[in-house]
Design goal:
The complex is a heterodimer.
Chain A (H helix, E strand, L loop, with lengths): L2 H32 L6 H18 L4 H24 L7 H23 L4 E2 L7 E4 L2 E4 H23 L1 H11 L1 H6 L4 H26 L2 E2 L3 H16 L4 H20 L6 H15 L14
Antiparallel strand pairs in A: 1-4, 2-3
Helix pairs in contact in A: 1-5, 1-8, 1-9, 1-10, 2-3, 2-4, 2-8, 2-9, 3-8, 5-6, 5-8, 6-8, 9-10, 9-11, 10-11
Chain B lengths: L1 H29 L4 E8 L6 H20 L7 E8 L4 H13 L5 E3 L3 H14 L3 E3 L23 E3 L4 H16 L3 E8 L2 H17 L2 E9 L6 H10 L3 E4 L3 H13 L5 E4 L12 H4 L3 E4 L6 H14 L7 H21 L7 H12 L4 E2 L4 E4 L5 E3 L2 E6 L2 E7 L1
Helix pairs in contact in B: 2-11, 3-4, 5-6, 7-8, 11-12
Chain lengths: 293, 396
């Protein structure tokens, strides 16, 4: 493999990884707060992608309106799912919550087939063109995707570490009961977490369409599962961990394919999941959990 | 006591029923000195009716036109119609019914499973059978994995098989583009995709083509950037893509984004790919098709179909069913010409021999010659994408 081919594949991997990272952030945040693996998260991206598709391909709205619409609808949907499906189960066993999340995922996928139709919807790419740097052509779509996701992570870190709501989120994740005693509104904080996570999913849906300009009802399922692997690899609950996990998974996929094993891409990703769960279940940046006896 | 009597009466009626029915059939077949009875079996209701209905429509239209033009040898064709709902059991029941009514040839079925079941029973009776659409090798061969397997000599089809498309792709790449190197991009685990790849690879040596890259994707995957970067780096003359239109659109977009300018050749799964990638990226892409929409040879058929059924020809199943009817009618003509009695064993054999012996017989979807396993050696229609539309280019 030549050097320029390797660089090109690394950029491919970073672009895919950025989308994984954005989705993984949503997984991680929700898990950090209520210890729920929100399997409906990938399907929120799917709904966001359909919003972008209809805004641009059917109503010819400018891309910025499409982005706002996608982020807005995703946020609203995420909060609605939380209020309708998860809030009533807050004191139920965690397994009930997990099963409900899978149920919501199926509901969204099959509902989308009913409403949007089962076939893929294809649109013109939003970002076209590429620049050549030292003999390597890099598409603008790749640059936009990587830059946007890094900015999103920086903003999210600032929100979590420097703002009042961020402080409340950290407090709730530390100890739900104690946070409530300190006067933090549990409902508001959890809804806010879902809103931020889903807004990131909305941004992810736009970036996804930059890379693969097609929306389909089941597009969120594999994407969601891979992002979940990224979140576990980075250390579920950790924001920089989710980001690192996303990039690692994306680059790994690209390198496996580059080495000529493109049909083994998915297998490699899930092998990582097994290895992490067996040898370091807390992931790269995860907190150490002390088992209480 | 009364109940028992009633029961006996019902039982007696039930036993007598088939006798009455059989009597009816007897009279229709005995009156067949001036008619030829054939049967259509296909799924016109149920989940896959969108494939069965166009086939049935074409068959009905064909034999109506034939009858209106005087039939065969002055005899009218009596077309029996049965709906098998794509259920192999129903197919076999329908066949037994058709046989009892004196059918001398069978058209059907539409989907692979039902057609294989039908071919197993027609083979025992040496009943001429033709299908428009079933692509599995099992339709005409007992055991496709065994090279010396028994061939169901009485069964024919009008469509080409998946590996055959792959062979045609190799020949096209070599003779039209002078290709020396090729890349393959296929769907891992898809029978359709892998069968075409296998057909392609069986011909590369003969065509002097070297496969420089072979990449795949898993069903449902949409990220092809890494594979396309590999293909672009191998710099092939042509890229073979035996995949369906949705993935094909993404794959071609990714291929061009990776900077590869090679010609793309697709299979019949490419139909309507024009809606799934930009006109610029698709320019010059060709794909193999079972028929050539909008051309002279099918124009009359398309107009008749629209006039009779009020809809455009929905897919390639309709014109293929027309061709299958045409082949069957040719077989019947040959048997009639020999002065044989419809329904007799000699008559059936004559129909089979006539279809088997066809040499470049012209249908509306291409020309027909049958090989040793009764699969058509057929020209494929090459569809070229130019300026964002899919246009018929030539027969190859």
């Amino acid at each position: 493999m030549t050097f320029s081919l390797l660089i090109a594949q690394l950029i491919n991997g970073l672009q895919t990884g950025s989308v994984y990272a954005l989705v993984a952030l949503g997984y991680s945040m929700v898990y950090g707060i209520i210890k729920l693996l929100n399997f409906a998260h990938g399907d929120i991206i799917m709904v966001g992608a359909y919003m972008v598709y209809y805004a641009i391909a059917s109503f010819a709205l400018p891309p910025i309106v499409a982005v706002i619409l996608a982020v807005g609808v995703s946020t609203l949907l995420g909060v609605t799912v939380e209020k309708v499906a998860y809030t009533p189960l807050r004191s139920a066993p965690r397994l009930s919550l997990l099963i409900t999340a899978i149920g919501v995922s199926f509901l969204l996928e099959n509902g989308a087939q009913l409403v949007f139709g089962a076939d893929q919807k294809s649109m013109d790419p939003m970002v076209t063109g590429s620049i050549s740097m030292g003999g390597i052509s890099v598409s603008y779509a790749a640059i936009v995707t990587i830059v946007v996701s890094v900015i999103a992570m920086v903003v999210l870190t600032i929100v979590v570490n420097r703002t009042k709501i961020g402080k409340a989120m950290r407090a709730v994740s530390e100890d739900m009961g104690a946070a409530q005693l300190m006067g933090i509104s549990l409902n508001r904080t959890i809804s806010m977490t879902f809103a931020i996570g889903s807004a990131l999913a909305g941004i992810g849906s736009v970036l996804y369409l930059c890379a693969y300009p097609q929306a389909s009802p089941t597009m969120g399922s594999m994407l969601g599962i891979k992002a979940f692997v990224a979140a576990v690899l980075g250390g579920i609950g950790s924001i920089p961990g989710a980001m690192i996990g996303g990039f690692v998974i994306g680059v790994l996929e690209a390198l496996v394919a580059a080495a000529g094993f493109s049909m083994w891409k998915d297998a490699a990703v899930f092998l990582i999941l097994i290895i992490v769960l067996v040898f370091k279940p807390t992931g790269i940046l995860g907190k150490k959990i002390q088992e209480k006896v | 006591m009364k109940k028992a009597l009633l029961f006996a009466l019902v039982l007696a009626l039930a036993v007598a029923m088939p006798v009455f029915a059989g009597g009816g059939a007897e009279s229709s077949s005995s009156a067949s000195s001036d008619t030829i009875t054939i049967a259509f079996i296909g799924n016109t209701t149920g989940d896959y009716a969108m494939y069965g209905v166009p086939v049935r429509n074409s068959v009905v239209m064909f034999f109506e036109q034939l009858n209106a033009a005087g039939g065969i040898n002055g005899k009218q064709i009596n077309l029996l119609e049965y709906d098998d709902k794509a259920d192999p059991t129903e197919t076999v029941n329908a066949y037994n019914l058709a046989k009892s009514k004196g059918a001398t040839a069978v058209f059907g079925s539409v989907l692979t499973g039902a057609t294989v079941a039908l071919s197993d029973v027609t083979y025992d009776d040496n009943m001429p059978q033709i299908t428009a659409s079933a692509t599995s090798p099992k339709v005409t061969v007992m055991d496709p994995d065994d090279p010396n397997s028994e061939v169901k000599t009485n069964v024919f089809r009008a469509c080409f098989l998946d590996p055959f498309q792959g062979e045609k792709m190799a020949q096209y790449a070599s003779s039209k583009y002078g290709a020396k190197t090729a890349a393959i991009f296929y769907e891992n685990g898809s029978d359709y995709s892998e069968a075409i790849v296998q057909g392609f690879e069986s011909q590369i040596e003969a065509c002097g083509i070297k496969v420089v890259a072979k990449e795949a994707f898993a069903t449902g995957d949409v990220d092809y950037k890494a594979q396309m970067t590999n293909i672009a780096a191998a710099n092939p003359d042509v890229v073979i893509m035996p995949i369906y239109y949705g993935e094909a659109g993404l794959a071609i977009t990714a291929l061009r984004a990776a900077g590869c300018k090679a010609k793309v050749i697709g299979g019949d799964g490419f139909g309507s790919v024009k809606d799934y990638a930009s006109a610029a990226d698709l320019e010059g892409t060709v794909y193999m098709s079972g028929y050539a929409p909008g051309t002279e040879s099918v124009a009359q058929f398309e107009a008749d179909y629209k006039a009779k059924f009020g809809t455009d020809v929905p897919n390639m199943f309709a014109p293929l069913a027309w061709d299958a009817s045409l082949l069957l009618a040719e077989g019947l003509k040959a048997a009639e010409a020999k002065g044989l009695a419809a329904g007799s064993a000699e008559y059936k054999q004559a129909v089979i021999d006539a279809i088997k012996g066809m040499d470049a017989f012209e249908g509306i979807t291409g020309s027909y010659t049958f090989n040793e396993t009764n699969d058509p050696i057929k020209s494929v229609a090459i569809i070229k994408i130019s300026g964002g539309s899919e246009l018929f280019d030539e027969f190859f």
